[in-house]
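Hey, quick one: can you model this chain's 3D structure?
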Amino acid sequence: MPDYRLQLLIDPTDLSVIRTAGQRITLAKPVNSDSSPNVIWLSIDPFQSTEVQWSEEYGIYASTTAVQQGASITKLSETGVPAQDGASYSFTSAATFNGPFSSGSVARGSYGAQNDMPNSNYPMLTFGLTQSALINQKPAERKPISATPVLATQFANMTPFSTVYIWLQSQFSSETIITKITGKTSKARFGGGVNDLSLKYDANLGVFVPVSAQGKALESRSSEWIAWAYRRTARASSVSPQEAAMTFLHHGRNMLAALVLLFVAPLCQAQVPTCDALTLYGNAVNSGLCRDLSPTTQNLWVCELSGVNPDVHTTFNVATALHVTVRTGANPPTCQGNSTLAGNWPPAGGAGLTIAAGQPANVCNVSITNWVARLNAVPQVPNGGATACRAGFLAALAAGRLSNAVAQSYLNTCNAQACP
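Sure thing. Here's the predicted structure for all 420 residues.
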């Protein structure tokens, strides 16, 4: 099932003008930096309603096409799809990819390519990522989304972002290198719990704008405010969630928030709040407890806590509760299991993360209790003018413990979730 869906709407009158001008809907995705992309991913014949769906699955390609404006990419070879993230592939003298190989230099959510083509054959090749999509239910298979020149013997590390750039143009087709986007663009930011967006073309602005954006934003902000207010009230007064709800009712601050809390308070206790888990990740990677982070452009957000055997890591996203997973052995694992966490981070008043009710304290002979204690002991970075959620990631980035791409993905998610 696709991870993301984008719907683009155009009024009939505007559509007639766009078609007469010979313009097409154009999509592109950034890699390694959440800024301007350099390859046209999809060039689409416009309709009143265009639906694009895709999954976060990528391939790696090699090409002799030079990275220059307007060049059409011809793939020399490519890996299977999905390629393994957090691993590298070698492009050999036989013009084929070998791998995947484990690589400490490639983080989860990133893809590595080693150019082992002899310099005498090709002094430089172009490497990039590919991604498939469904356009109005018709497949567009393995279309390049990026292009990076790589010299012989050198290595390319590629981290895709989930942002999609959208604009109209008539000059270039899919799989074309663009060193600079000309014209006005819109950005559809997916990830962080956002997997379905609708935009409509505004002829006065010359761009696609969100449909009912204000109403959706208000709805999102309200739910985030309720969760934030619940945590602040419950922490500050050391009361139960039900008592926190009654405090809202007593003071008349937000009747809706109080009623919601009364009904969902038991659920609030069942898992770690998203913003708490994000704040933990930033501080854990800065302290070194979290050895590696997958970016939030991926479906699940993973913090590696230990090595290969046993492999211990935490995982969560907006819809998935924070949990500790343990695997021993490999291909296939001899033992595997997880334990969901509850509570809050950072610990307040002696409380903090705990093992959720009914969850195991030991998995595959690994003590989850000990790992929870280590997570609770992670020192919190002073805010220094940033939000608590962003401060840890900024500190880790400054210390060289996170790549810019991975750090930016979490900073964006802290903003998207309106984390304090």
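One thing worth noting: The longest strand covers residues 335-348.
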